[in-house]
Design brief:
The structure is a homodimer. By secondary structure, chain A is of the alpha/beta class. Chain A is built from 17 helices and 20 strands. In chain A, helix 6 crosses helix 7, helix 6 packs across helix 12 and helix 9 crosses helix 10. The relative contact order of chain A is 0.09. The model of chain A has no long low-confidence stretch (mean pLDDT about 95). Chains A and B meet through helix 2, helix 6, helix 9, helix 10 and helix 15 of A and helix 2, helix 6, helix 9, helix 10 and helix 15 of B.
Chain lengths: ~575, ~575
């Protein structure tokens, strides 16, 4: 059997940075060639970054992507890499975008793949299955391709596919079997979700069985607004055997020698019913390398480790790709701000993180102590700004009471953080967890101010688990646990009035999070939740809180998605909405 | 030729209010019957309101819609209206929702229409063309129908269709011609855009020609978050003659007698290639009424009047449907807050509007005078809250300068408005116009605080035109113009530092708005804008401002869409985005 040395380049492109992304392709193609690779594959939309959203409608951007692709092909040849087939994703268009109705074109923008070889674009493929659920809106943007591209190289037939093509039965993988290919390459921009890696390998194995071919799955890595791509690139044999696998959340060049069947000389081409098959041959290829290379199989990590790395990478890339030098956040001594501070320090280093303690008359002594302790443990830049003089100025000039006074304290803190941001250039981090966002347990323009929220999609019960995991991880490594124990163990409180506890107005977080997982993530109705054993009165109260807080979420900062359904583009509900789950049935 | 007395019920449903929406159908069906109507049609998704967004994924909500439909059919018969065919939109499902990939079901949620008659659901139809552009995400939600439903009533064949079906050539209207129907009913949830009414009539006429049949187009009216539905229901004859037309932005029962060809006894049924045709007959119908009724043709209004009514209705429905009793806004004496105050007073009456002047040391005398003058003209509840004591408290405790001090003033005003909202229960209105939102000329958590923004999609140059139009309209009616002349004529200023003018940092608004119309609404690139004659340096500067302000827009309050491309769900761009239009070519 012929052997092909594959390289899967699990890299971190940036949306809109065409020159920078092309430079990554050149650099990693060089590394792949140096390792003797005969084929290197980069992620979906490598040249443009992903997702580019409505930039698809900008003709100048489409033209720039096309031009960058051809320039890259020439540059690779100029780099002496003309023989190496390089698979890259890019934005193409063979017709105008569909920005309105009264036209059902079969041409338009394409989520495209190109195989670069010999200084030119040797083959292209247009993504066939377009996802239009969850965070994906690809029916808005792209016209689906209906032709499978098969490339003959070094005596082997390789089919080229993009992302969602692998998530659906039928289409390219079924046609690849008819076309009798030996290998299917699948390039991805597949965002992280908790447990998705557990789904991914069986999925790739099912498609290998469907295609009757080996599958090489390459995914990007890095943060893009609310998404974080986790990598986890995979090679499986035609029989489903896992051959090689990259780690998550890190750039990685996975190089693996794959034995493949020789190309069938009588393999069918042209119209195969479900799709057309186009065939291209590329030669010469880099010489068959000496020896054997195995990519290895990266070890899976725990859920807490996975989420922690996702949050660190999501924050780091948001900060760095948007050109911020530093972040600032309020430190209350509570668990949420402590965990965000620890994430920020892991992402950026302590010298790029400013923590501000903003005590009021209702702040307990341990709040200030815990905030200071956290600062000492992590080494971040610690400040104290008392809020009482500003709160008093408002109270002296306005007639406020009750909730208005509670919210005033949170808003004065928000003004302080934004003033520091304006004065010193920090990005403000906000720290409300998913449970709070769900029930609206926050002050709009108060503790919710900020440009990014690492905990936006993290339920409170998971926040505690992350803190415990991070501290244990530090101990395992022999370094100082960043989060004070008392921040983890004390009962949560907003400290906006004397003796206030979260449990005064919310159910126990274990119960709350279980209900939220059903209602928010699972779209379950009231009766289903009650049938699962939750207290009907608690369910009714939680559902009303969630429904009533939509207006707050609409103005919330972005934050890294880690669940199957994050607030934001993943869960789209009207603000004006009189539907309330019936409380009896 | 048989004559059918048609009733088009241009009504205002509320998302999620199934009992309330059903009550509207019963009330207006009664009114239609009292006018001798033999067929009454209500808008798309009448029972659920539109758009319901991810409520589609809630099985309890789908079941409630289905149950409400059957209850309504029975209730109409109980009301003595069993003979009257009633066409209503609702949410149906014949399979589970597609919330992930790895399944391409041909069953699932449906954007459905039912014809109610004789106490039961006599016929149903599932929307065939699903819009997935602009603000629409219907591929996310619905499975398209592939069967055209034709109902024989009073000797006439009537085809039933939904909204987007009329916006695309081919499909239901083409099949309606094959099926030789006399009338096509099209029920809509079609959001307002400036000039859309000018497109709508020719569109309906084209489809009448395609179907070779009369067309009855009924649209809803009212506000739903960022959308406002303008009504504008239309009846045209098979030859395209406009027979009757409802006004925009008002509930209206359009009743019109339409002469229709008798049903063809040999008309085809079953599989017609592009779609199936299902036929149903309903009888008895209400007796042919005596006399003739013509619905009349509502007069078109100017663009300014159209937009003003859209903004008034959009605000009123947001406030009322969300249960607010009153609104509060800051009054600077400038044009934006003056126009929002006048809109709010028109929408809610002066007793439900609180205006707060919040002068600082940089506020000019005319600012305070103009704010007080506006309050006097409109009769709104006027307050004054000086910001200096609170600003001074921050300045005494923090070391701030420059932009941080400017923004501080805006944020203290934001805290004051939110405190009044918490204390007294008002919805806060924010007043940044589309031009400011585009270039980021606002303070996040400062002047941008608020739950709704009537001017969000109104460019500054149009704000001035609206003010002039509203004052002229007042004079025409013999009432007091609400907006002080000097608010219209003075040069715009944020008044955050001495002598500051908008033109210090922005181009002239006429030039700015022309560039924004091309870049934001038209997706034009830099070179196209320069080729249109704009100063290259100004274009470059404006584009950079727009690109850099995406993070602010992501946290902006909702506001009524009036343009072809509003910020929000209509224009989706990444925050993290290094693409900048090349400044030379």
């Amino acid at each position: 059997m012929p052997t092909l040395r594959l390289a899967l380049a699990q890299v971190n492109p940036t949306v809109g940075d065409l020159p920078g992304n092309a430079a990554i392709v050149r650099e990693w193609s060089r590394a792949a060639a140096d390792s003797g690779a005969q084929l290197v594959a980069f992620p979906e939309m490598m040249l443009t970054g992903y997702p580019v959203e409505d930039l698809v409608f900008r003709e100048s951007f489409v033209a720039a992507s096309q031009a960058a692709l051809h320039r890259l092909a020439a540059d690779l040849a100029g780099d002496g890499l003309g023989d190496l087939p390089v698979v890259v994703g890019y934005l193409d268009a063979d017709g105008p975008a569909r920005v309105s109705s009264e036209a059902s074109p079969d041409r338009g923008p394409r989520d495209a793949l190109a195989l670069l070889h010999g200084g030119r674009v040797a083959a292209t493929y247009y993504k066939h299955h377009l996802p239009n659920y969850g965070v994906f809106d690809e029916d808005r943007y792209f016209v689906p391709g209906d032709t499978l591209t098969v490339v003959r190289m070094a005596g082997v037939d390789v089919a080229l596919t993009v992302c969602e093509d692998i998530w659906q039965a039928g289409g390219p993988f079924a046609v690849a079997r008819q076309a009798r290919v030996g290998l299917v390459v699948n390039i991805n921009g597949s965002p992280y979700e908790l447990d998705k890696d557990d789904v991914r390998l069986p999925l790739v194995q099912r498609r290998a069985a469907e295609a009757g071919a080996a599958v090489a799955y390459v995914n990007m890595v890095g943060g893009q607004d609310e998404l974080v791509f986790d990598g986890d690139s995979i090679v499986v044999a035609a029989d489903g055997t896992l051959l090689a696998r990259s780690p998550q959340f890190a750039e990685h060049l996975l190089i693996h020698d794959v034995e493949l069947p020789p190309a069938a000389l009588d393999a069918p081409t042209g119209d195969l019913g479900e799709m057309r098959v186009d065939r291209v041959a590329v030669a010469p290829l880099p010489a068959a390398p000496a020896g054997t290379v195995e990519g290895g199989i990266a070890v899976r990590v725990t859920n807490e480790a996975e989420v922690w790395h996702a949050l660190v990478l999501g924050l780091r890339d948001y900060v760095d790709k948007n050109g911020f030098r530093s972040v600032v956040l309020g430190l209350s001594g509570g668990i949420d701000s402590s965990v965000v501070a620890a994430i920020a320090v892991d992402a950026l280093g302590p010298h790029r993180v400013v923590g501000v303690s903003m005590p009021s008359q209702h702040s307990s002594g341990h709040s200030r102590d815990d905030a200071a302790d956290l600062a000492k443990r992590t080494g971040l830049d610690y400040r104290v700004e008392a809020i009482q003089p500003m709160v008093d100025a408002f109270l002296a000039n306005m007639s406020l009471s009750g909730l208005a006074v509670e919210n005033l304290q949170a808003r004065v803190r928000g003004v302080i953080l934004m003033a520091l941001s304006n004065q010193e250039g920090h990005l403000v981090l906000t720290t409300g967890n998913k449970s709070e966002l769900a029930v609206g347990y926050s002050t709009l323009y108060g503790d919710s101010v900020g440009g990014f929220n690492p905990l936006k999609d993290v339920p409170k019960t998971l926040v505690w688990k992350l803190a415990t995991w991070r501290n244990a991880e530090a101990e395992r490594r022999g370094s100082e646990p960043p989060i004070p124990d008392s921040s983890i163990t004390k009962p949560p409180s907003a400290e906006l009035r004397p003796g206030q506890l979260d449990t005064d107005s919310l159910p126990d977080y274990a119960e709350l999070d279980a209900i939220l997982a059903g209602y928010v993530d699972g779209d379950k109705g009231r009766d289903e939740l009650v049938a699962e054993g939750h207290d009907p009165a608690v369910v009714d109260r939680v559902l009303r809180l969630v429904d009533g807080a939509e207006y707050k979420r609409r103005q919330a900062a972005p934050g890294t998605k880690i669940s199957i359904k994050a607030f934001g583009r993943d869960r789209r509900l009207p603000i004006t909405n009189r539907w309330r789950e019936p409380s009896s049935s």
